[in-house]
Amino acid sequence: LKAGHDGGLRRLFPYDRGGWSAVAQDIGGLLRFRLPAGGVRPGLAGLIQGLGLGLVTFQGGVGLAIFLVVPPQGELPATLSFLREWHRILGWGVWGYVGLHLFMALCHVWRRDGVVAAIWPWR
């Protein structure tokens, strides 16, 4: 993942000038109602994938922490009740991410650029 053939972490988390330039270029295109180019490259799509991966991972970690500290009675200790709130807020973030993903997929379907068809397993 770190230095894979597909750009590795640079594609998911654009930490250099080239990556952020690609993100800015993609956003500029969207503001002119043009979808970014498809394919494996740094840009807005990769950044959204990386942020979603981080969001789901963090929510899963908080959920695991809750699971590990909940006693058999089923109540979270008062000092750790903030974990439940974090988990709930992150859950809404995950739903937002799923909705954004669905919207972006529909944009590709409407554009008929073949992106969804290329990843669709039942073709």
Main attributes of the structure:
123 residues, mainly alpha
List the helices and strands and how they pair.
Elements: H1 8-12, H2 17-31, H3 44-69, H4 81-111, H5 115-119
Structural description of this entry:
By secondary structure, the chain is mainly α. The protein has helices spanning 8-12, 17-31, 44-69, 81-111, 115-119. Helix 3 runs antiparallel to helix 4 (81-111). The longest helix has 31 residues, at 81-111.
Mean pLDDT: 84
Shape: elongated
Question: How many strands in all?
Answer: 0
Low-confidence stretches: none
Q: What is the CA–CA distance across the termini?
A: 28 Å
Label the structural class: mainly alpha
How would a textbook summarize the main sheet? none
Strand and helix order: HHHHH
**Total helical elements:** 5
Strand content: under 5%
Which percent bin holds the helix content? 55-70%
Radius of gyration: 18 Å
Task: Summarize the model shown.
This protein is 67% helix and 0% strand. It is built from 5 helices and no strands.
